TrEMBL record:
Protein name: Two component transcriptional regulator, LuxR family
One GO MF term attached to the UniProt entry: DNA binding
PTM-bearing positions, type 4-aspartylphosphate: D55
Source species: Streptosporangium subroseum
Domain Response regulatory, first and last residues per copy: 4-122
């Protein structure tokens, strides 16, 4: 089945370009477009897409606010949101991830990475390109979390600590399995355990916790 996506960007040429690129993929279907965050939230709530691709800077309701309304801590059935930004050190990326975004990418990322970002979000693999992800998460973690990092409800095992670091570095489940010589099902089991112990809802929150607690160094 096709991955249903809505695209929100206030620049028509960018929005149209993103939609055309995604629609050209055999298993992605753009079901809606919006020029501002408020319209994006309305569309998302009505259409319930598999993935929302939101620009950060939009008039009225920006991408961070829209993300929080659709994927924030108070949302019972959150949608998958990928934030897209122009600058690789955009000051709003950290806030967007805190608001519930599963991942992010840059507008100059290219067709392949854009498609990968959508597939990753749809599959629950929130981190996108390791070269971008690690640098950005690290930079924003260094700026200091808004609150003290949560303490795990149960101590992490040595294997969970290993997997925590690989997730923070942007590895996919398959890459983690290959790197640690374990099965894919074992990787998924450990990640589920990490989410439960950390109270994390997705891989981005796992990665952010790793940076905030200095498990990963730049």
């Amino acid at each position: 089945m096709s991955i249903r996506v809505i695209v929100a960007d206030d620049q028509e040429i960018v929005r149209t370009g993103l939609a055309m690129i995604l629609d050209a993929q055999p298993d992605i279907d753009v079901v809606g477009e919006a020029a501002d965050g408020r319209r994006a939230v309305e569309l998302a709530r009505r259409l319930r897409p598999d993935v929302c691709l939101f620009d950060i800077r939009m008039p009225g309701l920006d991408g961070i606010q829209a993300t929080r309304l659709l994927a924030g801590p108070a949302v019972e059935d959150p949608l998958a949101v990928v934030v897209i930004t122009t600058f690789d050190l955009d000051e709003y990326v950290y806030d967007a991830l805190r608001a519930g975004a599963r991942g992010f990418l840059l507008k100059d990322a290219g067709t392949v990475l854009l498609s990968q970002a959508v597939h990753a979000a749809a599959n629950g693999d929130a981190l996108i390109a390791p070269s971008i992800t690690a640098r950005l998460l690290g930079a924003f973690a260094q700026s200091g979390p808004t609150s003290r990092p949560v303490r795990p409800i149960e101590a992490l095992t040595s294997r969970e600590e290993q997997i925590l670091v690989t997730v923070a570095r942007g590895r996919t489940n398959n890459e983690i399995a290959d790197e640690l010589y374990i099965s894919l099902s074992t990787v998924k089991s450990h990640i589920a355990s990490l989410m439960a112990k950390l109270g994390a809802r997705n891989r981005v929150e796992i990665a952010m916790w790793a940076y905030e607690t200095n498990r990963v160094k730049n």
